[in-house]
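Postdoc handover notes: sequence design on the structure in folder B. Input tokens:
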């Protein structure tokens, strides 16, 4: 499955369980490990786990592969590795703290500017 189709499946799966603040970042020029990162927010640990599960189910149903899932113990930040696309599902406080969007798009602040 190509990356564009995989992204469409992922976004549908996230929206189905009401994820919000979904960002798609093309990182192909930064790393050769994967092409895209998708970051989504959830309102509770239960929702992060449901979102990660729904992404896995929908990707497998569409013929894609799930390589690994990390973070299921706490549920504050789940990572779903789908090969060319990595999905990060995070609680808003965790997302704000790590600021992956700025990190991967090259717009991160210097550590001395963070509070």
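Designed sequence:
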């Amino acid at each position: 499955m190509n990356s564009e189709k995989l992204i469409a499946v992922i976004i549908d799966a996230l929206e189905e369980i009401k994820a919000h603040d979904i960002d798609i970042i093309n990182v192909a020029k930064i790393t050769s490990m994967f092409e895209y990162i998708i970051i989504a927010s959830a309102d509770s640990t239960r929702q992060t786990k449901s979102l990660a599960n729904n992404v896995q189910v929908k990707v497998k149903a569409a013929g894609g592969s799930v390589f690994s899932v990390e973070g299921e113990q706490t549920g504050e930040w789940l990572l779903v590795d789908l090969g060319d696309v990595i999905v990060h599902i995070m609680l808003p406080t965790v997302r704000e703290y790590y600021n992956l969007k700025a990190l991967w798009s090259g717009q991160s602040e210097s550590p001395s500017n963070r509070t």
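Context for whoever picks this up: Residues 108-115 have pLDDT under 50 and may be disordered. Don't rerun without checking with the PI first.
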